[in-house]
Amino acid sequence: MDHPGYSDDKAAVLARLRRIEGQVRGLTRMVEDDTYCIDVLTQVSATTRALEAVALKLLDEHLAHCVVDAARAGGPEAEAKVAEASAAIARLVRS
Known about the structure:
Number of strands: 0
Distance between the termini: 28 Å
Structural class: mainly alpha
Oligomer: single chain
Radius of gyration: 17 Å
């Protein structure tokens, strides 16, 4: 494979990650400013959901491109890509 499955949406993924980075900096400021615990937890939850959305986008792109391409080719690479995707899904479910 020449490039990751998300290559076509790389700019959008990077923009989302930069927004999440800003959310994390905001969390740091909230703690530094002794913000009420529940307000900080609310923002932690929002940041977690944003990261999960990025993860799901990346997973979707991986399945649609990398796994599909490997499945078309068949053989051990196809089995390896499916196992790799299954492991990634398991990690996401556990997190």
